[in-house]
């Protein structure tokens, strides 16, 4: 019996690194067995810390200031519903997703859950998709950081700095904070997230207090808007705003009382983002006036939210928002960097990636080897775009980010299927009656969203059909490579194949 097949209340031997599943204290060294190497830092995160991690990954201010104007331009006054609908669908998904966390305890998020239900070949394919997707989401943001930082320094201080220089500084800052430990990162993210959320809430409250441009109206929430063609076109944008919320499961080994902390953090994150995005975008439309919102977004898409801040709060708010959007991007990069490192750490522990990537800093417990690899990859990608003279926003951000959105949605669909298969195969396991219906409904809805997103992919990439086809093809090609690799390893490296998905139970991969 492997670790994933155990009953919830059955005693389980220590996980790699000497920790009990769910974030317990390290156990003692067993007779005849060498002491386990240092692992991730235990009991370092509570519910709040994990919430800050995953919401920061979504970068609320970046979504509102950088993407919401596009949603208003395409979807009109129905734009707030795109975020609300996406939040409802992902909330249903979270119910199914969290049901597996009680039974599949190995570190690895989507990778381990999919492996447990759908097999090692599908699991390895999913793990590579996750690595590529999270890296794409994180590294693409350096284009936005560079572009926004360059514009801020030039417009406000008259200093001309290349965008790539700002991006390289950001890469170094992300690595250094992550190296200090997950608890330090959570505190930094907590401060940055609070500041960016606060400026948006203040703006929304002032807009409503002043009655907006033409009074407070509720046309955005007319149910008829659900059938608006523009609504379907921007639904993918709504889903992109939640990217990273599912990474709560990656912090299981570092969470206090993980069986409670992880689900709470997941539900809080989804609910907060659904309500927050919908409310703020609605307030922005009120500030512009329902009849004038689309025209205003067309005339000043990139600067729409900054202009509203300046109009309703004053010039100081516009400057503060420009500063905070850079810290928002930084917070998102730090959160994704931490998630990527834990995926890499998990795969190295299972023997899929080189053992060196399983090493952690003995003082901070951070997976420093994985962090170095991710940092080097970011430097290489940013460097290539800089040398080729490509645009940091239109190409580095949009082209690199977009495959990540596709990949995460595909992983969520596979996870829904995994929930159904897992509980059908393990009928004796305790579960709520609504878990399987939630998995089926979420899976079908997300498949529809994926089709809509691919059909309107140019909204995310601002590219032509050839580039779009290449970007969309990255996910299926990556998945296929993982599946083929697993099938080859089943014959040539059976020991590694057996450990895919944490299937070795408590067996440690020597560092």
From TrEMBL:
Residue ranges, compositional bias (Gly residues): 19-30
State whether keyword Cell membrane applies: yes
Q: Which organism is it from?
A: Agromyces tardus
Q: Which InterPro entries match?
A: AA/rel_permease1, APC_superfamily
User: How is this protein annotated for GO cellular component?
Assistant: plasma membrane
* Topology with respect to the bilayer: Multi-pass membrane protein
One of the entry's Gene Ontology molecular-function terms is: transmembrane transporter activity
Recorded protein name is APC family permease
Where does the sequence pass through the membrane?
50-75, 81-100, 121-141, 161-179, 191-214, 226-245, 266-289, 309-332, 368-390, 396-424, 436-460, 466-489
Q: Where does it live in the cell?
A: Cell membrane
Q: Where is region (Disordered) located?
A: 1-35
Pfam families per the record?
AA_permease_2
Enumerate the UniProt keywords alphabetically: Cell membrane, Membrane, Transmembrane, Transmembrane helix
Q: Major place of localization?
A: membrane
User: Is Membrane included in the keywords of this UniProt record?
Assistant: yes
């Amino acid at each position: 019996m492997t670790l994933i097949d155990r009953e919830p209340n059955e005693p389980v031997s220590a996980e790699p690194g000497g920790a009990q599943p769910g974030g317990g204290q390290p156990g003692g060294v067993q007779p005849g067995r060498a002491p386990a190497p240092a692992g991730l830092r235990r009991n370092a995160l509570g519910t709040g810390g994990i919430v800050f991690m995953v919401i920061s990954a979504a970068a609320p201010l970046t979504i509102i200031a950088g993407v919401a104007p596009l949603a208003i331009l395409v979807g009109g006054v129905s734009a707030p519903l795109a975020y609300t609908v996406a939040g409802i669908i992902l909330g249903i998904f979270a119910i199914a997703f969290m049901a597996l966390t009680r039974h599949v305890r190995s570190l690895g998020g989507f990778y381990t859950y999919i492996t447990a239900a759908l097999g090692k070949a599908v699991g390895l394919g999913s793990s590579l998709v996750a690595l590529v997707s999270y890296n794409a989401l994180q590294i693409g943001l350096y284009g936005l950081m560079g572009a926004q930082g360059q514009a801020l320094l030039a417009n406000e201080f008259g200093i001309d700095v290349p965008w790539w220089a700002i991006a390289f500084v950001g890469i170094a800052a992300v690595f250094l904070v992550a190296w200090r430990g997950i608890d330090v990162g959570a505190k930094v993210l907590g401060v940055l997230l609070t500041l960016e959320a606060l400026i948006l809430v203040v703006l929304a409250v002032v807009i409503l207090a002043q009655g907006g441009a033409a009074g407070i109206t509720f046309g955005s929430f007319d149910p008829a808007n659900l059938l608006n063609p523009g609504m379907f076109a921007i639904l993918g944008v709504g889903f992109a705003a939640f990217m990273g919320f599912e990474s709560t499961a990656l912090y299981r080994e570092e969470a206090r009382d993980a069986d409670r902390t992880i689900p709470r953090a997941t539900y809080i994150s989804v609910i907060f983002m659904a309500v927050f995005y919908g409310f703020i975008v609605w307030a922005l439309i009120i500030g512009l006036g329902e009849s004038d919102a689309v025209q205003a977004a067309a005339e000043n898409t990139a600067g729409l939210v900054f202009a509203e801040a300046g109009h309703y709060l004053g010039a100081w708010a516009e400057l503060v928002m420009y500063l905070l959007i850079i810290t928002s991007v930084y917070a998102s990069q730090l959160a994704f960097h931490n998630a990527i490192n834990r995926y890499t750490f998990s795969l190295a522990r299972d023997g899929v990636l080189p053992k060196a990537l399983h090493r952690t800093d003995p003082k901070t417990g951070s997976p420093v080897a994985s962090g170095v690899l991710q940092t080097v990859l970011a430097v290489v990608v940013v460097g290539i775009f800089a040398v080729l003279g490509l645009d940091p926003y239109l190409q580095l951000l949009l082209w690199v980010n977009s495959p990540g959105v596709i990949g995460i949605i595909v992983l969520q669909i596979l996870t829904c299927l995994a929930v159904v298969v897992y509980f059908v195969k393990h009928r004796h396991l305790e579960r709520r009656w609504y878990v399987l219906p939630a998995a089926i409904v979420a899976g079908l809805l997300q498949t529809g969203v994926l089709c809509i997103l691919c059909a309107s992919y140019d909204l995310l990439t601002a590219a032509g059909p050839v580039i779009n086809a290449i970007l969309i093809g990255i996910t299926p090609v990556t998945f296929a490579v993982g599946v083929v690799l697993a099938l080859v390893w089943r014959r040539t490296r059976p020991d590694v194949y057996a450990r895919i998905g944490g299937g070795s139970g408590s067996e440690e991969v020597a560092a």
